[in-house]
Design goal:
mainly alpha; 2 domains; 5 helices; globular; Mpv17-like protein 2; transmembrane helix
Length: 146
């Protein structure tokens, strides 16, 4: 079985290709940098590209870890919403900067630099089985004891 870094590299290669095509198409369709156009790009990015990226990330890692489809489906159901919320918190501002200030030829490089950080965080959370829900529940239990 391949190690975690190699799995992330494989998933990153797949996602990089998808994002390259997606952002080139998005820039051709919406070349302007005004607030309305940036808002459209952000909306399209978060409603079309992000769910695809999350699915490829979770299912891809699951298959590379030799997990069953049932187990991957459960992990997708358990983690998808949290990953989407974190993605929105990180990538909406990231993509705003990207769409507003960066030349399209640097768009994917900038996004991938941020993605490396985020995928490392997600990967470590995935590997260590620590979720926000568990942390909140532990905090509540501690509060009840105090």
């Amino acid at each position: 079985m391949i190690n975690n870094s190699a799995r992330i590299a494989v998933i990153g290669s797949i996602l990089g290709s998808v994002q390259h095509i997606f952002y080139r198409s998005l820039d051709k369709q919406y070349p302007a940098r005004d607030p309305l156009t940036i808002s459209k790009k952000l909306f399209i990015d978060q409603t079309l590209c992000t769910p695809l990226i999350i699915a490829v990330f979770i299912y891809g890692l699951g298959f590379l870890e030799n997990k069953t489809l049932d187990k991957i489906n459960k992990e997708f159901k358990d983690k998808c919403a949290m990953i989407f919320l974190v993605d929105c918190a990180v990538f909406v501002p990231t993509q705003y900067i990207n769409f507003k200030f960066l030349d399209p030829k640097y768009r994917l490089l900038f996004t991938n630099m941020v993605s490396i950080i985020i995928h490392t965080i997600f990967s470590n959370q995935w590997k260590n089985k620590i979720t926000i829900t568990i942390k909140v529940e532990l905090y509540r239990q501690l509060q009840q004891k105090i």
